[in-house]
């Protein structure tokens, strides 16, 4: 006879939403079990952000920035948004644009993974592709192109995710409290990549208001300026790297260096190696910045006592399905001269 089973239902997943963007957040926190096996004293949990409606953590800020701008009367139906994005913020903004009858123009590097560019076109975004080799001071570079367009179209609304502190606020209000609740308030380290800085700065600010002893570790790609600035106060000349979504060629306002206790630098090779390991060992098909964060977590663990229990939270911002033609493609990786 079949045993009678009591169904267990997850309350949040049963909610009905009036529009897609309202399903943003309340992402799962998942314990890593195999990739951390050399550290039995450690419990490592990853916040799986690719379960957001448009596939990344950036849905949170897109929703917050656009709702705030509309509520404050700075943006209304029919207006055009312009932003520079490595692709994920753009997807979130596309969702907000569709729901609120806005137009969406995005400055994106031509080298961005094809999957992201195709997805952006599919949801009706008008892409402005820029040459990734242009120096940051060039008017057509990734960092300056928005300002060049705004000179001709001052009526466009520029959320400015890199310098608008409402980016950090989105994570202070959502990502941070979710992690605190999911971890029952017992956290030793938060380790996360720094792109605009919004995620780490906002989450860290919230967590430190709850427990000032939590250590905050930021991950930065080799070639970005943040790591050296944090360690020495000096600005290095930036160089090309291939971990999309992390680092920058210049300092930006949303990176709150005061809240960061330590930074770890990661190479393309290290990030991609751990991106692939996450897929094979944990079945977590995540993007390159997740592999970078994973490398950072293991680096933190390698410096800690093997006897002391430790609880670490990290954040996996987007899905590996956005990088099947790049990080998960052997030819692409080999062409960069990387051996995995
Ligand atoms: N990973 C990916 C894939 C991203 O798109 C971003 C956003 N730039 C980040 C990490 C970093 O998040 P944040 O901008 O909040 O620092």
What's this model, at a glance?
This protein is an alpha/beta fold and 340 residues long. It has ten helices and nine strands.
Which residue ranges are poorly predicted, with pLDDT under 50 across at least 5 consecutive positions?
none
String of helices and strands: EEHEHEHEHHEHEHEHHEH
Inertia-based shape: globular
**What is the fold-level CATH name, i.e. the topology of the largest domain?**
Rossmann fold
Rg, rounded, reads 20 Å
In whole angstroms, the N-to-C terminal distance is 51 Å
* Helix content bin: 25-40%
Secondary structure tally: strands = 9
SS summary, helix count: 10
The largest β sheet comes out as:
6 strands, mixed
Bound molecules: 4'-deoxy-4'-aminopyridoxal-5'-phosphate
What does this protein structure show overall?
The protein folds into two domains: 11-51 and 175-333, Rossmann fold (3-Layer(aba) Sandwich), CATH 3.40.50.1100; 58-152, Rossmann fold (3-Layer(aba) Sandwich). With 340 residues, the protein is an alpha/beta fold. It contains ten helices and nine strands. Helix 1 crosses helix 5 (166-182). A six-stranded mixed beta sheet has the order 1-2-9-6-7-8, with helices on both faces. The longest helix has 17 residues, at 166-182. The structure holds 4'-deoxy-4'-aminopyridoxal-5'-phosphate (PMP).
Task: Pick out its properties.
340 residues; alpha/beta; Rossmann fold; six-stranded mixed β-sheet; three-stranded parallel β-sheet; 9 strands; binds 4'-deoxy-4'-aminopyridoxal-5'-phosphate
